[in-house]
Amino acid sequence: LVPDSLLSKVRLPDKFGITGQVASTMKDYKADLYLASTDGIAYINGSIATSPGKNRETYDVLVRTGGLNIGRILKQDSLMGVVTAVVTAKGTSFDVKTMNAAIDGEITAAEIKGYRYHNIKLSGKVAAQKGNIDFISVDSNLQVQLTGQADFSGKFANAKADIRIDSIDFRA
Description:
By secondary structure, this protein is mainly β. The protein has two helices and ten strands; from the N terminus they run αββββαββββββ. It has helices at 4-7, 70-73; strands at residues 16-24, 28-37, 40-49, 58-69, 80-92, 100-112, 115-127, 130-139, 142-151, 158-168. A ten-stranded antiparallel beta sheet has the order 1-2-3-4-5-6-7-8-9-10. A hairpin with a 7-residue loop joins strand 5 (80-92) and strand 6 (100-112). It is flat. The model has no long low-confidence stretch (mean pLDDT 93).
């Protein structure tokens, strides 16, 4: 069911169950799935349509994880661990030159390099070849606020960010 090239990069949970529905054509996909496994839980609800054609694709996706061990699944145990988060993405086009999209996320907890970060929020938008992002972390070892803008209209993209760092503990 899963291509060997993908299986070499992922580790399936020892035990898992999937319930829900998937409907698709060759170019359009709609899913409402719930995964419960020995590596945590995940819920995916949304659609991706590529039938409108290049640069007119549409997507509206919600991903929610609960204690999902992404590091184990992606065979990156030394880098990442368990993640609990909610992320939504909605928009048109996958090319930043024609994209009109928004992403919002809230990371309740994420293990990175052995530390459990928590209380991180992000939001971003891309439209008319311009983008912005807001990132806020109130974790006691990573208190950061970032506001950034990008312009994709030129030959090379340019970006500007304002970062306010209250504290970072690299030894946490």
